[in-house]
Amino acid sequence: MKALIRRILPPVLLGLILCLIPLMPEGTELLPSAANPELPLDYDLPGWHGVKTQESEKERAILANDTKFSKAIYNHINPFTYEKEEPPVNVSFVYSGSDLNNSIHRPERCLPAQGHLNLNGRDEELTLADGRKLTLRRLSSNTLVDNKAGHNIYHIHYYVFVGSDTVCSSHLVRTWRDIWDRMVTGRVQRWAYIQIGTHWGEEVGITEQQAENHLRSLIRDLVPRQIDWNAIKN
Fold it and tell me: What global pTM score does this model have?
């Protein structure tokens, strides 16, 4: 009986899918992300100094041609000495094109390929400067400076996905939302993947608390002004 079900089930499911095709939307509408791609530079973000950076050739090569990037490095400005403080914080906005699978990848996939070890993740709810609460995914990892000596640099990253009307920290939720929109409503959201990260460790003279404080402070100040919250429904 089980063998019979295994033989019959695949063609039955395929038949159901084919029957649903005429009911699917004929066209698709590409909707822009609610995330603003123009990052504040120089001293435009109070308390910070931002410098625009360029995506790498490798990033450009492995992602779809219509993927767009917006990147910058920020240093906190000491309010008393006006000097740039360590550590620098890297901000990366990656905007998907029509082919989402070749536009955005989770850092859980790409960081290990870049030599990151002991990857750990959890959701964190942070309070933004405007009082709004936002859940982001926090990742921690380490990379070896000297394999023989076993010296490490430690890394912390926060990331979130921003669609045309949705913000979420879950890759799975974003994927299912995208599938539903494409198949049922005929909409294609241009998702923005926002990653904000820095590093710490004895090798660079930065404590974990310093790194965490700078990350959370930049997220608090930057994210509220980069998202059109009037468009967000969830």
Answer: 0.83
